[in-house]
């Protein structure tokens, strides 16, 4: 299954091919960086009582990005979060 964005003729058309995409749920994320790359770690915590002395997080995915891609993600997340809060209220 693929999705094509409609763009004016002077812009690049991006074909989003999701044939090999997988979906993973995450309720925990962490980020690290070096001068050359950003590492995003995603996982899940099943600490339901919220008062444990130790919280175990099962990491499931690591995404490694170059700084320019990380900056684009930062800008895109900011835009989408702003739109979400305008529609659904402030996230606290």
From TrEMBL:
Domain of life of the organism encoding this protein: Bacteria
Xref: InterPro entries: DUF3467 (IPR021857)
UniProt protein name: DUF3467 domain-containing protein
């Amino acid at each position: 299954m693929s999705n094509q964005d409609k763009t004016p003729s002077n812009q690049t058309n991006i074909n989003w091919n999701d044939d090999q995409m997988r979906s993973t749920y995450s309720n925990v994320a962490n980020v690290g960086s070096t001068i050359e790359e950003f590492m995003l770690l995603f996982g899940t915590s099943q600490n339901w009582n919220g008062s444990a002395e130790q919280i175990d997080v099962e990491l499931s995915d690591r995404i490694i990005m170059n700084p320019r891609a990380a900056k684009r993600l930062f800008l895109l997340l900011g835009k989408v979060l702003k739109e979400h809060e305008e529609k659904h209220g402030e996230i606290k």
